[in-house]
């Protein structure tokens, strides 16, 4: 009994358990979900070692659902995943045209190497080739990334339509970046990624300078690019380190 003789209030009936809200995904969202799951698997395993059942399990979906979105099976799914990875790699080189050029290049390399770090096995399989899933289409997608990266760099150099020497120099550097990234993965991701990035920027400066010594257009671009650099930037740093070596060779002049 409570004071005043009132009967205790009846306990409220327990609420029925609520089911988790199910969010119906659109076709685009479901396809993106499957692609994300596939890319995560292809990032760490060779394409031939990934099955549709693996993708379905990773996406918490069924095998028939995977076939519904990718009726061509694993080959179509792999090509779509390569396309998705290519889009991310293209975005790595998209950088605002402000600040010293080597600083912009460093930011782009930070994003590129972060992608390599996250997708190491898949990145290696993609660039080395030899996979049973590899096709002319996947090769074209990868080559498209290289060309897009070259175009972005040439825009930052202020030469969207360069002559053959300058274009070749940029494409050679991109090839060197790919090779260095593969070796970096093979070597247990050593040296530290920041050192690798700085070394690749040094390579770019060295290639541009060497090309400028033999090509009038490259010389003009090099002078324009170097004029935008700062005393504490990458070009000043590599110049300070190289000058003693150049002075040692002065007797050859």
Task: Give an account of the 3D structure.
- The protein is an all-alpha fold and about 250 residues long.
- The protein has a domain at about 85-230: Tetracycline Repressor, domain 2, CATH 1.10.357.
- It contains 11 helices and no strands.
- It has helices at about 25-45, 50-60, 65-70, 75-90, 100-120, 120-130, 135-155, 165-185, 195-210, 215-225, 235-250.
- Helix 1 (about 25-45) crosses helix 2 (about 50-60) and helix 1 packs across helix 4 (about 75-90).
- The longest helix is centred in the C-terminal third of the chain and has 23 residues, at about 165-185.
- It is elongated.
- The termini are far apart.
- The model is unreliable at about 1-5 and about 15-20 (pLDDT under 50).
Explain briefly what this protein structure is.
With 253 residues, the chain is an all-alpha fold. Helices cover 67% and strands 0% of the residues.
State the secondary-structure class.
mainly alpha
- Which percent range fits the helix content? 55-70%
Please provide the count of β strands. Answer: 0
- Helix-strand sequence: HHHHHHHHHHH
Name the descriptors.
disordered N terminus; 0% strand; 253 residues; mainly alpha; Tetracycline Repressor, domain 2
Topology:
Blueprint: H1 27-44, H2 52-58, H3 63-69, H4 74-92, H5 101-118, H6 120-128, H7 136-156, H8 164-186, H9 193-212, H10 216-227, H11 234-248
